[in-house]
């Protein structure tokens, strides 16, 4: 009987796992399940990127690379930051990792001392609280509201700041809400962070998925003072449909970048060499596929939002970015459908799965029990059919 690590025992299992495991089991039994659970594009990786990966294998580019990534990829990342975000970095500021999640983990490990507080907004991406705890920090939550587009203000930040506050994690465009902070709002947050000497981890993984007239702005591009205390996180997964290749990257001031690179050199070493070569093509090659995928997501979003708001008892806002819709089901709370009382988002998700063969993620996984999250990273046909099934069930209430 061993005493396992107290810190590690505090890490929660993924709440979403339960429902996705159930959905998988049903599928395996031959049930026609429609899943709105996906956290990844349903498109294949663009051909030019795949070919660059194959070429890397065939040319024997299959050995260790420098731990923090290939210089050629770092240069491509620097060019991307300059072109897309008006940010000037040198390769020494860049760390390439095995996915953006790994980049965030390195960043938190590099900055967190025991008991340091790190601010995140609710609803949050499932991994933030657990990654903060793994690094020895304490997650501090700011609840956001649908009527404020799920965004927080300086007043909210002032309410939770203490002398232990070390950093905020900003995620715009946001998973799960689709919230997008505009330049004005980012300026205010930047001023606040500079004034209070608080670091910013800016998770910009959904930057390419901003819809309508919205554009993504990196908080680091506001001025040099905020750039110096911001760790920008981005990666290949969402924009280039490369989730399985596992490439993320971070940009930070030289000192932070060095510590992140040291951590990585002793844990994972370099991310997959083949994926790094493919990513150079992704960033430097033809960008038409990024734009095409975005157009498809935008069409699906428009369709999904209208269809949800047509269902009595459900409502949602039009998210500005990413590929998720947070569906408000508070009008159904404590109603009974198929003899089951809906008390929580998990009850509602289970009902939709068991009676409608539709998988959704309960909002409690993101810290908000009034919502379920539907991903529109699935075909228009699935969206149509899945929403019909949801409507049929919900309107029994
Ligand atoms: N950040 C957010 C907000 C995400 O939603 C995800 C993936 O779901 C990631 C980071 C991690 O992406 P990856 O590790 O695949 O690059």
UniProtKB/TrEMBL annotation:
Its EC number is 2.6.1.-. One of its GO terms (biological process) is amino acid metabolic process. InterPro entries: Aminotransferase_I/II_large, AspAT/PAT-like, NHTrfase_class1_PyrdxlP-BS, PyrdxlP-dep_Trfase, PyrdxlP-dep_Trfase_major, PyrdxlP-dep_Trfase_small. GO terms for molecular function: pyridoxal phosphate binding; transaminase activity. Pfam families: Aminotran_1_2. Residues 32-390 form the Aminotransferase class I/classII large domain. The keyword Ribosomal protein does not apply. Gene3D superfamilies: Aspartate Aminotransferase, domain 1, Type I PLP-dependent aspartate aminotransferase-like (Major domain). Keywords: Aminotransferase, Pyridoxal phosphate, Transferase. Its cofactor is pyridoxal 5'-phosphate. Belongs to the class-I pyridoxal-phosphate-dependent aminotransferase family. This is Aminotransferase.
């Amino acid at each position: 009987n061993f005493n396992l690590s107290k810190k590690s025992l505090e890490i929660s299992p993924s709440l979403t796992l339960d429902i996705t495991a159930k959905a998988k089991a049903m599928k395996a039994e031959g049930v026609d399940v429609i899943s709105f659970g996906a956290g990844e594009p349903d498109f294949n990786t663009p051909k030019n990127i795949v070919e660059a990966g194959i070429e890397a294998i065939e040319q024997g580019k299959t050995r260790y690379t420098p731990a923090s990534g290939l210089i050629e990829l770092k240069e491509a990342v620097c060019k991307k930051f300059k072109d897309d975000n008006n940010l000037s970095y040198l390769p020494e500021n860049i760390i390439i990792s095995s996915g953006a999640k790994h980049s965030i983990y390195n960043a938190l490990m590099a900055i967190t001392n025991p008991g340091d507080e790190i601010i995140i907004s609710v609803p949050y991406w499932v991994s933030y609280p657990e990654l903060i705890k793994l690094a020895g920090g304490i997650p501090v939550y700011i609840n956001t509201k649908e009527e404020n587009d799920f965004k927080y203000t300086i007043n909210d930040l002032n309410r939770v700041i203490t002398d232990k506050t070390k950093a905020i994690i900003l995620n715009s465009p946001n998973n799960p809400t689709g919230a997008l902070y505009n330049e004005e709002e980012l300026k205010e947050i930047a001023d606040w962070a500079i004034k209070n000497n608080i670091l910013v981890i800016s998770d910009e993984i959904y930057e390419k998925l901003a819809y309508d007239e919205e554009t993504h702005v990196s908080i680091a591009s506001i001025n040099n003072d905020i750039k110096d205390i911001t760790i920008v996180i981005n990666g290949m997964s969402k924009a280039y449909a490369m989730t399985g290749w596992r490439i993320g990257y971070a940009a930070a001031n030289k000192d932070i970048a060095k510590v992140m690179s040291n951590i990585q050199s002793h844990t994972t070493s370099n991310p997959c060499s083949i994926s790094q070569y493919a990513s150079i093509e992704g960033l430097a090659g033809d960008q038409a596929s990024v734009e095409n995928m975005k157009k498809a997501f935008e069409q699906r979003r428009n369709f999904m939002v209208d269809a949800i708001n047509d269902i009595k008892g459900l409502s949602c806002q039009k998210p500005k970015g990413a590929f998720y819709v947070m569906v408000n089901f508070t009008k159904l709370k404590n109603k009974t459908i198929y003899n089951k009382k809906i008390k929580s988002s998990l009850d509602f998700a289970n009902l939709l799965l068991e009676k409608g063969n539709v998988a959704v993620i309960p909002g409690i996984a993101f810290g908000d029990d009034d919502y379920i999250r539907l991903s529109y990273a699935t075909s228009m046909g699935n969206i149509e059919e899945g929403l019909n099934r949801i409507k049929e069930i919900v309107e029994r209430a």
